[in-house]
Design goal:
It is elongated, with a radius of gyration of 20 Å. Strands 1-2 form a two-stranded antiparallel ribbon. A two-stranded antiparallel sheet has the order 3-4. The two termini are 36 Å apart. 31% of the residues lie in helices and 12% in strands. The chain has 2 domains: 44 residues, no CATH class; 78 residues, no CATH class. Helix 2 runs antiparallel to helix 3 and helix 2 crosses helix 4. It is of the alpha+beta class. It contains 5 helices and 4 strands.
């Protein structure tokens, strides 16, 4: 869920063509954080519009995003791919799992499926880039470009 997706509860009157704010940030009470009193409120991320270190995380049963991706989504192919996954929060988990078990076929399959690639082997030196992604030193998109390149060059067989 986007940060601040539940910003306000409004009431529409189609006869008079008006919209009335019922609940929202600080309205009608300054303690209101979102329009619906949602316990997993992630409004604190609404001003992170760069999304340079975007990440999905679980909050309760819900998958949340730590930034507001409206602009980033236009240029970040991996963000769009992640949004299409059933559980986008597991992207970094899949990289971590592969780093721990680089020869496990299921870890390789899970990792590659995150990038719409397939294969049976990922070169050992890719672990360096995997660690950089985990540490936030390179972007998920950079890592995705590496995996796609290896796949396109048939180096994952």
């Amino acid at each position: 869920m986007y940060p601040n997706a539940l910003y306000a509860e409004v009431k529409a009157d189609y006869v008079s063509n008006t919209i009335t704010l019922v609940n929202g940030h600080g309205y009608p009470d300054s303690t209101i954080r979102n329009g619906f009193g949602w316990q997993y409120d992630n409004s604190k991320f609404e001003y992170n519009v760069d999304c340079n270190n975007w990440n999905f995380y679980m909050s309760g049963e819900y998958t949340m995003l730590n930034c507001y991706p409206e602009f980033k989504i236009l240029h970040a192919e991996q963000l769009i791919r992640s949004l299409q996954k059933q559980d986008p929060a597991d992207l970094l988990d899949d990289i971590s799992n592969w780093l721990r078990y680089p020869n496990d076929p299921s870890a390789i399959t899970e990792l590659l499926s995150d990038y719409d690639a397939s294969g049976k082997h990922v070169p050992h030196w890719v672990a360096n880039s995997g660690n950089l992604v985990i540490n936030g030193e390179i972007t998920k998109s950079d890592f995705a470009n590496l995996i796609r390149y290896l796949y396109d060059q048939n180096l994952l067989s």
